[in-house]
Specification:
By secondary structure, this protein is α+β, with helices and mostly antiparallel strands. The chain contains 19 helices and 21 strands. It has a 6-stranded mixed sheet. A 6-stranded antiparallel β-barrel has the order 9-10-13-12-11-14. Strands 17-21-20 form a 3-stranded antiparallel sheet, with no helix packed on it. The structure holds one DNA strand.
DNA sequence: GCAAGGTC
């Protein structure tokens, strides 16, 4: 009898956490684990059954995409390549997405000698695309199987639960080439279109206006519509014409009760004369007659289980934390085991989710122990039905924590996530809404008030609670009140506010701009590029640059900024995914359209330039052009400290970490890079007085300074447009 | 130096 060597099945998930969960389920907890050679991914091994044979399973993962698309090297020279060439002529290539992870090598090491592969990538189009990235990497090194025997399998799962994972394992299919191709097409379109427009408008406007505070004027199918939403609101504010309107205000009282102010049922009128007529009609009577009293029990629903986008909204509006920052904090909380995986679209707890166990972990927290104990003794409420996106469970706390161990923002986010979780298993908030309808003369008025019946979940989410109001007077139909006053009040309509970040997130979600993972990136982008600033209350106010860009697109080709640009393309991409359209044809057709749009944009750029001229000064008018900061590529400005006899010099070098925006951190002074690595020698700055100052030198285009070693001990006062203002601390 | 999408 021939002794067969045991066969090996390689299994690959999209991220390390999933590989671990799935391996644990499939091995029934019996797998052994080791780190892979890149340090990021683990390999979980166990023996089991596959295709009616005993095999060795090796479950591992990638970290998102293995490859990313870029132009071949020589097309990345901005000075030598005409952006128009990026639409067709410039060849692209797939490069390793994160060279530090050496993912291809890692996969090949693990795949060598394997006989089968089961792809456990996320069940969306991106996941399908990663399937083929993995296959491209490993197929050359896998064992060549028996001819016509299937060796590549795709697991389709919709949640990370025992039943789902086992079902997927028992009904393996094949990866879907069309879905993967639709992602290839998206990548190529985004790259070619984004880079062409970005390079062209950057090069066109850069160096033209001295006070144009940007190193890079980027364009993208997600970031540009995101900016568009902010500017659209700005335009509404600008074009807002306040309108005067009139309201009938009536105050009535009964006995010794404090007077009630009533709401007019006509709400308001926009004509003074008409308003006066209604006053006269009301004044016929000195009494207000109660027409009806209604009491309705109303319910404020407990929240659905928490997903990423909702977490970002609340973090921004209630905690004042930006999305990018929130995700960083959330990821830290996740890797430290305090919360579940923070990137999910799902708002439904799975049937076997341990609600009570999760709640019990919170029993000793002083802040909400009382609510938790009450829930555990009276029984938790069944959570509201949410949406199962098939990715990850909702965001929940995983163990108890205290403020000291998490740090300020970490704690605030953890506290919110925990309060939200408790709220989802609490009762709804119930209140009584009382409405009293009055008639004064011929005019109808009413007043209403809310009284709490039971606070339910609002005890843990107090900011959603029913505000305490003074109770309405007890009365019944037919009662009469004395009219204390009735008058016509003049008021004006007021303009809308700038978009809050939370509103922007909602708009992006609604229009399909970005994903839960990329929404924070797009918002961060338009801040970093100086298109919008974050104002009080995390409202996003477009800058002159942001406004001019969007208005320019409107003038030239509004589709460049409308959210429909993305959805139209995605419609085409979906046809590829469904096998209803040819990948090459859709790609070429769409590229052709955008190539034409690009040429039209180039030909019409003067109409955007006209807007620029209004907002920015030509470089000649701003004095001599200074060199650019070597790091952020913006023009440097010379700044004098007011009220100081000391001279202060513009400086930007590696001692300071530059984020290209308004913040600067003094890092440990590292020695200046040796000028040997400098492609150009530093130009000297003359007339630098030394008394009380460190010797400072301008930074040159390549970002090299001399004598930066002595920079420690300087105070940084201001940073703007690539400039740091420094003076001695001593 | 550029896009957007995964994830660390």
């Amino acid at each position: 009898q021939k002794l067969d060597k045991m066969r090996t099945v390689l299994m690959v998930a999209e991220k390390p956490s999933l590989a671990q969960s799935i391996a644990k389920i499939l091995s029934k907890g019996s797998c052994t684990s080791r780190k892979g050679l890149n340090g990021a991914c683990s390999v979980h091994e166990y023996n089991g059954n596959f295709q009616s044979q005993t095999v060795r399973f090796k479950m591992t993962s990638v970290c998102g995409h293995v490859m990313s698309l870029d132009f071949i090297g020589k097309y990345n020279n901005w000075d030598k390549v005409d952006p128009a060439e990026l639409f067709s002529k410039a060849p692209t290539e797939k490069k390793e997405a994160n060279p530090k992870l050496s993912m291809v090598k890692f996969l090949q090491v693990e795949a060598r000698g394997c006989d089968y592969v089961v792809l456990w990538l996320d069940c969306d189009k991106e996941g399908e695309n990663i399937c083929f990235e993995v296959l491209d990497a490993i197929q050359p090194v896998m064992n060549k199987g028996i001819v016509r025997e299937q060796s590549v399998f795709r697991a389709k799962f919709s949640s990370i639960t025992d039943t789902d994972i086992w079902n997927a394992m028992n009904r393996l299919g094949e990866p879907n080439r069309n879905e993967a191709l639709s992602v290839d097409a998206r990548q190529e379109l985004d790259l070619r279109i984004g880079c062409a427009f970005t390079r062209f408008q950057t090069k066109y406007f850069q160096g033209k206006y001295g006070n144009l505070d940007s190193s890079l004027i980027s364009f993208g199918p997600c970031q540009t519509p995101t900016l568009g939403f902010c500017v659209e609101r700005h335009d509404k504010i600008q074009s807002f014409k306040p309108e005067t309107y009139w309201v009938l205000q009536a105050k009535v009282f009964k006995g010794k009760d404090t007077p009630l102010t009533l709401d007019w049922n006509r709400v308001r009128v926009f004509d003074r004369e008409v308003g006066q007529m209604f006053v006269n009609l009301a004044k016929i009577s000195k009494e207000a007659k109660v027409e009806s009293v209604s009491k309705k029990e109303k319910v404020k629903q407990r929240p659905q289980a928490l997903n990423t986008v909702e977490m970002l909204r609340v973090a921004s509006s209630a905690l004042g934390m930006g999305p990018q920052h929130t995700m960083q904090i959330a990821e830290r909380l996740y890797t430290q085991g305090y919360i579940s995986y923070p990137r999910t679209e799902t708002t439904l707890y799975h049937e076997n989710f341990d609600l009570k166990g999760t709640l019990k972990q919170q029993i000793n927290n002083t802040i909400w122990a009382e609510e938790v104990k009450a829930l555990l003794s009276t029984g938790i409420n069944r959570p509201r039905k949410g949406n199962d996106a098939g990715d990850h469970p909702p965001i929940t706390p995983m163990r108890s924590a205290s403020e000291g161990e998490l740090g300020s923002d970490g704690w605030r986010l953890y506290e919110y996530i925990t309060r939200h979780f408790i709220a989802t298993v609490s009762q709804d908030c119930k209140y009584l809404q009382t409405t009293i309808d009055f008639k004064i003369g011929t005019e109808a008025f009413s007043c209403s008030g809310k009284t709490l019946i039971s606070p339910g979940y609002t005890t843990v989410i107090p900011w959603q609670g029913i505000p305490l109001e003074e109770a309405l007077p007890a009365c019944e139909c037919g009662d009469t009140f004395t009219v204390e006053e009735i008058k016509l009040v003049e008021q004006q309509t007021s303009p809308p506010h700038y978009l809050t970040e939370a509103e922007l997130i909602t708009l992006m979600e609604k229009h399909g701009i970005g994903t839960d993972a990329s929404i924070p990136v797009h918002i961060n982008n338009i801040c970093q590029r100086n298109y919008v600033t974050v104002e009080n209350g995390r409202r996003l106010k477009p800058t002159n640059l942001g406004i001019v860009l969007v208005h320019g697109y409107y003038k030239i080709d509004a589709e460049l900024v409308l959210p429909t640009i993305r959805s139209a393309v995605e419609k085409q991409l979906n046809l590829i995914a469904q096998g209803k359209a040819n990948y090459q044809q859709v790609l070429q057709h769409t590229l052709e359209i955008f190539k034409r749009k690009f040429h039209y944009f180039v030909d019409s750029i003067t109409s955007m330039d006209e807007l620029m001229e209004v907002s920015f000064s030509p470089i000649a008018a701003t004095g001599k052009p200074l060199s650019r900061c070597g790091k952020c590529h913006r023009f440097m400005k010379y700044i004098q400290v007011s009220g100081s006899s000391q001279s202060v010099y513009a400086l930007c070098d590696s001692v300071f970490s530059c984020d290209g925006l308004g913040t600067v951190q003094v890092a440990t002074a590292s020695p200046a890079p040796s000028s040997a690595s400098s492609p150009r020698p530093p130009t000297s700055v003359h007339g630098v007085p030394h008394s009380g100052m460190f010797k400072l030198h301008h930074v040159l285009e390549n970002g090299i300074t001399e004598n930066t070693a002595g920079v420690l001990g300087l105070a940084v006062r201001k940073w703007s447009a690539g400039l740091v203002e420094v003076h001695s601390n001593k």
